[in-house]
Each structure stands twice: as structure tokens, then as C-alpha cells.
# Entry
Amino acid sequence: MKRLGIVLAGLLAAAFIALFFVVPGPMISTAARVGQGMLFAEIDGRDAVIIAYDDNGYSGIGFFAPSHHDGRITALDLDTGETIWNRALDGEPAFLTRMIAAGEEFAYLETTFGFRVIALADGSTVASENDIPGLRDVDTLKTAFAFSPSQEAIFVNPEEGVVRKIVLDTLEAVDVDSRTYDTWSCVLAWNGHGYSEGDSEAVVVGRMPVADEVRAFAVPSGSPPGTPGKRLTRLNRDGSGVTVGHETFVDPGFVAQSVLVEPIPQACPRARWDDDVFPDGRVIAEPLGAETGHAVIDHAQSARTDERQITVVDAFSGEVLGSNPAEGGLVDAATAPSGQGVVIIDRFLPGVLPNWSTTPVTSTLLLISTSGAVREIVLAPHGWLGLPW
Amino acid sequence: MTNARVEGPRRRGTAWGVLIVLAVILAMAAGFVALVAATHGPARSEPSGTIAVAEVEGRSVAVVVYETDTFGHLDIFRAESMGFSTQAEAFDLDTGERVWDTLLFAEFSGTEAEVLGMGSEYVYIGSAEGLLILDAATGEIIAREGEIDGLGEDYIASIDAYVWDVASGAVVLLDASGTVLSIPLDGVEAVHAPAEVAARWVDDLNTESDPGSVFPPDAWEQLDSRAPVPGSDWIDPTWATGGRGTDVLLEDGTGFAAGWQWGFAVTQTANPTSSDAYYLFQVGDLETGRLLGTVSGEADASAVTVTDAGHVVMLSTNDTHQGLLVVASTSGIRSSVIGERAFLGW
# Structure
């Protein structure tokens, strides 16, 4: 009888463990969601991208790896894709974390819990708002942080009617002169009120300037306007086009990064509308790859599906240099100072077995080298036991 | 003796055990039935804006495509899609009975689809996933998306890549390589479209970057308070009750009162007994002005379609958010609920 009990208990335990292998998808798939924006920096001589992400993946038999289920921040080598460091965000949700700016020593973030400064060397937290003179006791839910590349400083309004700046790689917020105040006071929204802060996410555009030319997409000559497959085309000044290469792309567009525009100096005192401060809009779309002669194309995998694909082609010959599925579409994109492109996409990675109940969406990074090669970095992959792969 | 004394209590114990198990099973079954009864009710349904009509095996049949959301109800057929599905349903126009109801797509939030046309053998449905061909008598899916002869994997997953060409009575479609194809009425194979047919559609197929939703249908815009019929500029719908905004439904193409060929017309009147948008659809005899029948609906009439057998068919909704197929004829007017679900979502 005792032996029978042991056998039954063993079978029960085996069935329980087997469930994690037999029940598909959720137990063994990855599910990462990236935060807002990305930063570029040089870490130990390596060009790196820094992003925050939430690891929402199912952790298999969770007690093996519970600590990996959280918001994290990581630095990745842009040339090799290797992880330079990867740290927990101390319980803060990463998808609401906004990457503001990075210098040579520090990176600055805005999280739901407040303002954070991290060390670029290892990702450790160096300071929060209460450690920064000029920001102590600030209610970060009411304030706004805006980066000015031209001044290499972050502007902040710690209280209504006050503007201070944090110069990159420093840990203090100092008062600004009246000229700077008149430039930034109306741009920094107080308590949710003020000018729109713009959207820094990636967009897809229909035209791309490259060198002194313009690229667009057009149906092959003589085909109906609804023909799904379109070709990369060089637009001539007279409006005619010349096909570049022989590849066709369904529902194509050029991946572009949205770049925040700096305000007109000292426009605030007379400004009544957004246009008075940002006459050409708060953001401009800059297609990726123009500097290196590449077109980064977001397109459907075929006419039979709306699942997407990212393909990099030579903008002058049309040669395909790299391609990667992006079933769930584009999330974010940016160009590093060193010329590499980073495109964040949503993938469907269902794990080993198919999943009938949900679509296992997870964000991954595509690193596009200056030669156009594409390397995919999967965030937060988990094995069957929940341990990182 | 010893054995008999021992087995007596064992048998009684076994009998009690069986009784307890049965009682538990019965209690669970009763709970399940109670759950079904508590959640069983009208599931929402919303038709797309087209109706196809034909004679099928001696019956006048209309086919509509609708999306349904049974969430909140016990529905074992749509568990995977949280109660959503897109279906095609056929009705007998003379009896109002459902002929068949076929599940086309079971995706969360539904899939855009509409019936393009039908013959006596096949029904053609265009969708955001491609084309489907159904058996007109049974509703069985004969071929879908990549299974269409002459098209195969060259299909386009966009609802505006498929249209019905009234003049030739054929499905017209664009394939992935940009060729205009057609499937003649009651055919199942896509072939190169005749030049004049291709020319009619070549600039319109698959040109919408966002075709928009076909659910719910747009209100019928061809109506007038006094409608023309051949030989007479106007008819006066004296049979219409109420009086707040009575309109006669007009036939597509001719602009005459729908049903004039058979001596009747259909009116849509805002119901004066209700403060919200609530309509009366009424049939009147054109010669005598006599009222032949009345049904009510919550939404304006849409997709007004005239059959060769003497029916005027249209869509509306009832007060429980279900689509209605309204059929008017010389024998009166009747409405059938679209997407009525039975036990467990059947």
C-alpha cells in the first residue's frame, strides 16, 4: 500500500512537471516589452545601445527563476550584440520608463517612481531625484524632462514657473538664465498641462532622401494600381521614376525615427500655440540608413498576410542586404552616432509548441550594421524551466 | 460465516460510495445546466452591408455575413476567440427559417467579410483573409483563400481585392501579381477576366490602404417620402402609420419604389410611440393603399435588395443588438434574427 502511494505521488509529480512541457506556448515563450526610447553611449570603448524592458515571459516552473520576472535595463554591444550588462530596475515597470539622455558617464531615466541616474559602466543606480541638488522633494509626476542635444543638458521644471538644467554627466540641477527660461518654460509641461511633448516612436514614411536623390515605392510599370508588390524607385525631378533593383515589397514604407525638435530660442513669452514654438512641428521623421546608403523597409511578408518584415536594401542597387520577420510590426527605431541602426520590433515567438490561446508577442532588437547586415537580439528568452537561455 | 460478516458492511459501504459519486455528478450536472440557463440569451450579431439572393433547390434563399459576439454566454464553439466569430447564414425568404449557418472565421474581435453574390450552387464571400466559396444548399465551405482553383497561393488578403460585377454576374478579383481574374456565376475556378470586365475594375481593386469596417452596414440612402413608380411620378404611402418621417425604400438602379413590380412598396417610419430611434417597416398595396404588414427594428434599413421571386429584403437590428433580416412581399412582412444561437452557442 505504501509502495502504491509512493508510485502515485511520483506519477502526480511527473504529470505536474510534464504539464510545463506539454501545455504549449505560455510556459516556455518569451514576452518582453520595451520602454520608451533608447540611448546610445560608449562603454569601455564599445558602441552600445541602452534600453529598458519588462520581462513578462512565463517562467516555466517559476521557482527556478522568479527573479528574472521584472523590469530590467540592459546595455548591448552594437557590433557584436553581446550583453555588456543587464540589471533589474528595482521593481519599476520598464515599459513606462523613458530614456532621456546619456553622456559619457551617466544615463538619465524617468520612471514611474521618479528620476534615475545610472552609471554607464555597469548599470547601477547612482542617484534618484532626492540625491540631486535642485531636484529634492520634486513631484516627478507633475514635472517634465526635456533633453537639448545642442546644450548637452536636460531641462526640468521642478515646480511651476521654475526651469533648471542638468548638464550631462553632472548630478545637480542648476538655475537657468532668463534667456534659457524664455526658451524652455513653455515647453516643459506642468502637471500634464502645456505643449505636447511629441512622440519619439518610429514611423513609416513613403519617401526617403538619399544623397541628392529621392526613393519611393511604385507598382511595376503597366501593373494595376492595386498590385500588392511595389518596387523601390528613384524619383526624377520631372516626377517620373526609375526602378531600383528587382525586389517587390508588399505594403512597403521606409522605417524612420522621430526626432524631437528643439524650440525656437526665447519664443515662450509671445507664444500662444505650439506653432509659435515649433513652426515645423514637434518631431521630424528621419528615415534610417540614409547616411550609409541603405533603405530600411517595413513591409508585409506577402499579400496573404499582414504580418510584417524588416528588410535592408542598398538604396542605389536595390540589393537585399538583410531581412528579418517582424510579425507584430515596428515599435521603435533610432540611429546610433556610430552609424548603426537599431530597430525594435514585435515578434511572435510561440516557443517550442504552438499556442492556441494567445499570440505570444515579444519585442526584439534588430541591429543593422553600417554594411546593412541585420542581427536579431531576443530579449528575455526563457527555457522550459524558466531560466534565461 | 466469517467471510459473510465481513463482506456485508463492505457491500453497504460500496453502495454508499456509488450513491455519493452519483449525487456529486448530478449536482455538478445541475450546476452546469443552471449556468447555461443563466447565461443563455441573445448573443450580439451585426451583419455586413450586402445580401445575396438566389433560387436554391426550389427555394428563394438570401445569404448574409455577420459577426457575432457571444461573450458572457456559455459558448463552447467560440471559446478560443472569446465568443467572437464571423459567420454566413442563409434564410428561406418565404418561411423566414434558417437554412444553414456556417462559421467562417473564429478570430478575436471578428474578421471583416461580406457576401459578394450567389448562384443556385455557390455563394461567394470576400473577406480580409481572402475569398471563400460555399455550397449554396448546405453552407459547406467548398474552397477558401489559397484553395481557389486558378488562384491558389497567389491571393490577396484584403477585402477590397474582391468585388461582384453585376453586369457579368461574376466575382472579379486581383491576384498578387496584379492580374484581374474572374469567377463566373456558379463556377469555382478563377480565370482571366474578360477585357471589358477587367477594364471596369482594374483601377479600383485593392487600392484602399485601409478599407474600413463592413460592420455594421450603412443606412440605405435611397429613400423618399413620395416615391416614383413606372407610369406615375409619385405614390403616396397612405398605409404608413405614425407620421414622423415616413419614407419609401427605393430600388437600387431604377430609383423606383422597391417592390413596385409586384404591386407593393415598403415604408420606413419613425415610431411615434418610442422616443428613441425605433422604426416601423410596413408593406402597403400600391393599388388599394392597404397595409399588408408591419415589423419593427432599431436601425435604419440597409442593403435593400429585390429578388426575382417578388421579395424585398433588407437589414435592420432589434432591441437586443441582433441583426434582423426583414423580408417583404405581397403576403406581408417578416423579420428573422440573424445569428440566433441555441444551447452552448450552437
About this structure: Chain A has three helices and 26 strands.
